[in-house]
């Protein structure tokens, strides 16, 4: 059995902490068993490991999230990267071709697809192992996992079983689906043993490969990458689930939540205050999550969430917080904070002059033993001031030691990299006419390979 975790999202549902590269699954606001803060993706990956499924798991994602995944889970993670964001059908089709043509996975292998960030107990992942048996016993095209509802929620989709299905059966035949019904409709469906649709489904690899062949789509990974923009920009539900002849569902009786909005996420945050700030005692059901270096103080304000990051500040009544995705959907602001495989950076200041010249200032933190890629820029010059730590700098083929107090000038087209021997803090000032993250030409990632390119 192979597991494909879908890591997507536009970064709008938990704005301003989430952005294009740091979607909700990467926010470190939950606590693990040791009391340390962890993200939803770190929690799920730990649970998969405990369930013995880590070696069989892959993450399907888009380019902006790759560095964040490697930063939080390690560089050895198997990541299947979309050439561009489309929808869940193209992403899953790409993953299928990767398993088939690159990994050499058998066509009879069961593939389980699930979100990368369900808030569940470990037993949920042990239950997914049963999907392979359910597929084999039922002969179905698809086997879904559904959660037994604890109340008639209007927020979730429902899997409605066939009327003849028995509640005592291991799995049930699926009659239909209902997306976010009214409360009274949900209550009636629960009476019919309907299940919450938690977005987990399984199929035999040949099921999807044969669909790709029938639609004259590539089944070789390299060719799929080339033709990815030709795939229909549709959900897997629309392209596959709704057209399948035989679908069964495996009930799961346990805790499950989708922490996709501020009001649901704060229900699982143990402390009302994260970061600098004060909340007075008369404030009830109020949370402050502050990533800035300035304090936030709330006086007798109840049922609100205040979230602050370099990307912005949100003040919202908790019940209204789901509106943020719609409010921010047209925002194209560049991310002001990102995690990378080598560390992290935060934008401190940005100016654009009437002449068109731009100036952007970053604080960069490089983790010990990590290095930047060997790269150059075509549109900007940079000045680095090292404010803490020491390491090895490579500049135009020459390597040398650098440490606190050093100032480095990196002109456009200059080849450069840095490896931190201790944690390093750097203030970087960029100047140019178009300061974008895409203005990076990377020549090498591995430090040994970078040193081999040096002349000294």
Automatic annotation (TrEMBL):
Keywords for the protein's UniProt record, in alphabetical order: Nucleotidyltransferase, Transferase
Occurrences of domain Nucleotidyl transferase (ranges): 3-268
Record EC number: 2.7.7.13
Top EC class of this enzyme: transferase
GO biological process, one term: GDP-mannose biosynthetic process
Highest taxon in the source lineage: Bacteria
Domain Mannose-6-phosphate isomerase type II C-terminal: 340-443
UniProt keyword annotation of Lipid biosynthesis present: no
Matches recorded under SUPFAM superfamilies: Nucleotide-diphospho-sugar transferases, RmlC-like cupins
Stored CDD domains: cupin_PMI_typeII_C
A Gene Ontology molecular function term of the record: mannose-1-phosphate guanylyltransferase (GTP) activity
Name used for this protein in its record: Mannose-1-phosphate guanylyltransferase
């Amino acid at each position: 059995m192979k597991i494909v975790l879908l890591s997507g999202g536009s970064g709008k549902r938990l704005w301003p902490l989430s952005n294009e590269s740091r979607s909700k699954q990467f926010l470190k606001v939950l606590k693990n068993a040791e009391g340390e803060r962890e993200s939803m993706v770190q929690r799920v990956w730990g649970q998969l490991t405990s369930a013995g499924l880590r070696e069989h798991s892959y993450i399907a994602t888009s380019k902006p999230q790759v560095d964040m995944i490697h930063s939080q889970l390690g560089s050895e993670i198997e990541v299947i990267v979309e050439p561009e964001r489309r929808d869940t059908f193209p992403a899953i089709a790409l993953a299928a071709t990767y398993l088939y043509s690159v990994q050499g996975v058998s066509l009879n292998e069961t593939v389980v697809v699930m979100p990368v960030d369900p808030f569940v107990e470990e037993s949920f992942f042990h239950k997914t192992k049963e999907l392979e048996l359910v597929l084999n016993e039922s002969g179905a095209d698809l086997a879904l996992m559904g959660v037994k509802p604890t109340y008639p929620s209007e927020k979730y989709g429902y899997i409605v079983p066939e009327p003849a299905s028995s509640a005592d059966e291991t799995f049930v035949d699926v009659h239909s689906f209902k997306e976010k019904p009214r409360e009274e409709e949900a209550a009636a469906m629960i009476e019919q043993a309907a299940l919450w649709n938690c977005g987990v489904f399984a199929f035999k690899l040949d099921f999807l490969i044969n669909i790709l062949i029938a639609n004259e789509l590539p089944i070789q990974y390299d060719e799929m990458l080339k033709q990815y923009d030709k795939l229909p920009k549709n959900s897997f539900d629309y392209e596959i689930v709704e057209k399948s002849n035989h679908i069964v569902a495996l009930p799961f009786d346990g805790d499950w939540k989708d922490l996709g909005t501020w009001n649901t996420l704060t229900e699982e945050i143990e402390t009302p205050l994260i970061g600098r700030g004060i909340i007075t005692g008369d404030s009830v059901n109020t949370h402050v999550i502050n990533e800035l270096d300035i304090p936030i103080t709330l006086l007798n304000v109840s049922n609100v969430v205040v979230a602050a990051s370099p990307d912005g500040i949100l003040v919202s009544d908790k019940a209204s917080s789901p509106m943020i995705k719609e409010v921010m959907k047209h925002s194209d602001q560049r991310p002001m904070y990102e995690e990378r495989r080598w560390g992290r950076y935060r934008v401190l200041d940005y100016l654009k002059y009437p002449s068109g010249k731009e100036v952007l200032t970053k604080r960069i933190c490089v983790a010990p033993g990590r290095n930047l890629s060997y790269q150059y820029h075509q549109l900007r010059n940079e000045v680095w001031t090292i404010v803490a730590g020491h390491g090895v700098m490579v500049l135009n083929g020459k390597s040398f030691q650098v440490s606190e107090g050093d100032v480095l000038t990196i002109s456009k087209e200059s080849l450069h990299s840095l490896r931190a021997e201790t944690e390093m803090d750097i203030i970087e000032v960029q100047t140019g006419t178009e300061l974008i993250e895409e203005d990076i030409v990377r020549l090498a990632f591995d430090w040994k390979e970078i040193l081999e390119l040096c002349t000294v």
